[in-house]
Fold each of these.
Amino acid sequence: MRRLAKDRLAGHLMALLTITSLLLVVAMGIGLYLKAAPILQEHSLWELLSASEWKPMKNQFGFFPFLMGTLWVSGLALLIAIPISLLTAIFLTEYAHSMVRRFVFPFLDILAGLPSVIYGVWGMLLIVPWVSNVAGPWVQRNTTGYTVLACGIVLGVTIIPLLVSLFIEIFSNVSHELREATFALGATKWQTAKHVVLRKTAPGIVAAIVLAASRVMGETIAVIMVCGNLAIAPGSLLDACYPIPALIANNYGEMLSMPLYESALMFAAFILFFVVLVFNLFSRLVLKKIKE
Amino acid sequence: MVKRSIIEEKFMKLFMYASIALVVFFVASVVLSVFKRGIPLLSWEMVSSLPGGGFYMGGGGGFLNAIVGSFYIVGGATVMGLIISIPVVFFLNVYLKANSRFGSIARLAYDVLFGIPSIVYGAFGFTIMIYFGLRASLLGGTIVVTLLIIPIFIRSMDEVAKTIPSELLEASYSLGATRLETISIVIRQIAPAIATATLLSIGRAIGDAAGVLFTAGFSDRIPTSLTQQTATLPLSVYFQLQSPSLEVQDRAYAAAVVLTLIVLVLSISGRIIMNRFSRNKIQ
């Protein structure tokens, strides 16, 4: 019976390991919240989110410019990535030969695997100069190139592989009979994709986009390298911006001497954690329901 | 009417070709622009020597400190990640029933953990380290990167472990094996998945900068103990690019080439393993 006892003991140990690793989510939420508490006592939540003065030395902590920076950049990245990814996914599932798929997938793999800092280097080498030399003069604006536009393009490209693989997974859940039924009615492939596949998978598409949005919001190093790091809410695509992750990463070293400053940065991390958590829970639950 | 639908079909197909072309163009543009800028600058001295005197003003030397530092952190994190993840995957798939409520909550939680940005891991890890009186160090960086890659390990191995037919487990039980002894069968089934998950995690771990920014710090030397700060490749690229000196920036591009090459090799070999080493797998 020693084998049975061993089996049971191992089971308990593994359960413990599983539960401990799961508690990380809870610990993270509580830990960040506790660290953010001092600043929430000093300033109201609304004040923090709506004020636009960021002067830690004068006890002014306005997060509005950073929130707007994140919103602009994420919005633009999604606007760029969604159509490209949707069309790519439709093509790969509805049209393409398996030969074509075998050719395209490794490219998506590489795109998915490249580190954030490499995207940042690419942004500095190609996108920023392009914005400064081509896009800016085109609308008669002088710009350094370190703008919402550059940031949105770089981030848009980083989420294409995630979106494509999610879309492909969702589309492949639509049954072949359904497609064949519309073909039998004389529909073209695109009509089938538009009226059957896209309509049937609309909730899944929304969930995938929400997931991609949460990924974009947390991107850090690539963002710092091309966003311009100017704490003013952007008014156009050709303004510099300063998204939340960049704020945290840039100021971490200097904040240790001021407790309230540290608390403010932890508050920023907590916002990020909270939004990403909610977005992830929503989209994962929807995607799971679709799979069943 | 027929005509309109055919025109629409043609147009949309054109757009689809354009998006595929764009995807391929983006990949080529990222990789080639980094290579084109960095490869002419890459020299043996850079990958084999430590930063010399006046390195950040354009002096001699290389970024061996960052290469070795990254390998220390990634190696440590991968080993620890495997030690923690394999039992969890085993627990989720052998000890729990297939439709267990706890199992589905756990999988959801790992999905969420996977989605949490590494800057949040870094910030959280840093506060915990301060709480325990730790400074930025090799140990701190390794722990944060371990936490970062555990969800990747678990979710990608679990994806494959879920497909193991229950008949296989039952056959093992009927021969008198306990659940614990059945592990050797499960391991054999998910071996290729462990290999790909490992490569995937190494790729993510070696490229991660935001998580190690505060927790591993930076250093010009190769750490000799767990409590010393250490450089990492991504941060070496990032810091050197901020320098006003062109020579220092050049070295950042060379470091970027090394990082890209490592990641490319990992991603390609991951695909090969996935395709080739599935021979023990029951379909």
Note: The beta strands of chain A are 54-55, 60-61.
Amino acid sequence: MRRKGVSYAKYGYIFSIPFVLAYIVFQLYPLLFTTIIGFTDFKGIGRTDFKFLEDIFANFKSVIKNPSFQKSLGNTVGMWIVNFIPQILLALLLTAWFTNNRRKIKGQGFFKVVFYMPNIITQATIAILFSTLFAYPTGPVNSLLQSLGFIDAPIYLLLNKTLARGIVSFIQFWMWYGYTMIIFISGVLGINPELFEAAEIDGATSRQAFFKITLPNLRTIMLFTLVTSLIGGLNMFDVPKLFQAGGPDSATLTAATFIYNQAFSGSYLYNRASAASLIMFVIISICSATLFLIMYDRDAAKLRKQERKLIKSLKKAEKETRRMGK
Amino acid sequence: MRHETTIPQKIYKVIIYVSCILLAILSIIPFYIMIVNATRGTYEIQSNAISLIPSKFLSSNYKVFEGKSFNPFVGFYNSFIISTGATVLSVYFSSLTAYALVAYNWKLRQAFFTFIMAVMMVPGQLLSVGFYQFMYRIGWTNSYLPLILPAIAAPMTVFFMRQYLIGTLSLDIVNSGRIDGAGEFHIFNRIILPIMKPAIATQAIFAFVASWNNYFMPSILLTNKSKYTMPIMISQLKGDIYKTEYGAVYLGLTLTVLPLFLVYFALSKYIIAGVALGGVKE
């Protein structure tokens, strides 16, 4: 027992060093650098020198006033909502179907694999595939509409702004509902089965069991899905960029595409792009912090309730033993 | 009896199956059209862009790529190197960090874990300007390093590895290693890593796919055509040279999807299980 009494605590620090170093170099430093650039006159190709602006918030003011940025923010949120609401509803419906004990659905494994499949395919491929499917004058969608007799001649579908936005939302929905469904199903499997058994004994219908037991118990997982999906949605880039390059007429321009165009697509307005990134950073932080606080509060409230109950029952038990002792 | 099947229940069951089959078709059909059109000539596609039967223009479609910027094999090779490097670093160092969080009692342990939770959600895209400028200054644009090395700090992977370790690690094993005189680093490499194999396999798949599909960062950093990754190669198909070469575009897309299909259908069991694991986040 040579090593008895040795403290191993230092290894906790030592083994964390690679993570911390990589984090500082590749994430924290770039974040600080981006922040600094947001307050400077830094633009143009091949330059590395910059100085702080006299009006220190000038970049932020100009980005917020920029109609293109406002539009991109509106598009981002709009396209995310149009994808998220049907996505979560369909995922819940499929969860209800697949987890119903009385109505065993066969082939669930197959359905899960197929529904999830679009999620692992490169988004760049999916974006270009969809723009090719809707191509004008010769694309599969045009051919289909013609052979069904809906249209006589091919039409340039992607010139329609609403349709273009709708397709971007649809792609997100189509890529993510399978993922959300699998997460929800695993959430349901984590619910205490006694709850469902008790409900069945009490004569509850499947529908009642779903609304009174499944949904309330999925609340945390649903919130988690909401946060991650919102953050992903606010960063939507690959699909809108490669589907129609933000077009037609900026209809599918997202905030991330706006930032990319400012900095890396010929304009080299690094300072503006940094300011826009920081604005997005603040929006995303507020969103996720709010949702996490709600989640945390709920959990904390639940814990306090359980604690109180426990103390109460302990006191009761004490009293009873005392009474019996007399 | 509640368990008997009444007629409305049967109808309901039929509705469920029909809906699921329609959704399955919705997932598959875009890829099916893509693969079939990859074998059809541009003329055939122009007369009718939907066909369920393959044709015989595969090789002539492939010839269109000659001398153009789209080269799926270069893209495959580059993406493979980057994704492999990033995956190895990500799972190894995430395991190490998770082990530090679980097996040792140090003062900043809880604070460090809270920090990891907090930065888990920060999207890398938002630091792109600072990241690019930093890499430009140290001459790392057109290098694979800025796409591989950041994988050492992967908060999400650390989180999952920690969850797994809490459930499986027994300190008795660690202690018996210590009694045998093994060093802490040796214990991690020889005893802990093998225990973590299932978690490493799952996280490796996700890390690999995420790196493989990454488009934003490589498209900013890589300007040299010989360094292009697969997603950048795909974006080349959008160019004007392919405007009329529909068959070639479909073939290019197919070539980029095939490796993912192979991996997905071979490992789908583990992938679905891994996704489900991500849902139980408490």
Note: The mean pLDDT of chain B is 89.
